[in-house]
Specification:
- There is one protein chain.
- The protein is of the alpha+beta class.
- It folds into three domains: 32 residues, no CATH class; 45 residues; 109 residues, 2-Layer Sandwich (Nucleotidyltransferase, domain 5), CATH 3.30.420.
- Helices cover 38% and strands 15% of the residues.
- It is built from eight helices and six strands; from the N terminus they run H-H-H-H-H-E-E-E-E-E-H-E-H-H.
- Strands 1, 2, 3, 4, 5 and 6 form a six-stranded mixed beta sheet that branches.
- Helix 3 packs across helix 4 and helix 4 crosses helix 5.
- It starts with 11 loop residues before the first helix and ends with a helix.
- This is IS3 family transposase.
- It comes from Lysinibacillus louembei.
Amino acid sequence: MAFELKEEEFRLKDVLKRVDMPEATYHYHIKQMHQEDPDKAWKTLIIEVFEKHEGRYGYRRIHAELKGQGYMINHKKVQRLMRKLNLKCEKFMRKSRYQSYKGTVGKVAKNRLNRRFTTPYALQKVVTDVTEFKCINNEKLYLSPLLDVYNGEIIGFSMSKRPTLDFMMNSLKQALPVIQERADYRTTIHSDQGWHYQHNQWVKT
């Protein structure tokens, strides 16, 4: 590299000209090399949390833990520093689409969205589905979120080891007060035709 060359052997200007590098750029990088890493303390904390949880925490959960400890740091900065440190969350969960369709067992709703998954109005279109996670020891975990298409906000969710009707109803009951309080237009809740969503209790609610 240019900074390793001795002045009596090569002229700096000649070397920089040869590699097509402006002298100001060269001096900037030399200065940066001798400066202490301003994120050194953050990196140390992130590594400690990451190792504490045996590599199972991603940037969101590490950010939440640091915040819980009283540290003020942006989640995007945690993500950026983890990339620099090459810290990757262990994939101990593998998600897949949960197949809940069992034929017509109740009321099948019309497809009012018809793949129009955009809207300029909050809570006009809400979508829901169930995701199955295959965890360690061959256990399964199910996630049922309700998402506002307008901005991607999760307005209700539930998790369970079994995909029961009550599990689905819990997430719906979380979302309804949000819709009733904040929606300016009629809300359409869109789902697949799984048996939960055909069930009389879901439809009536």
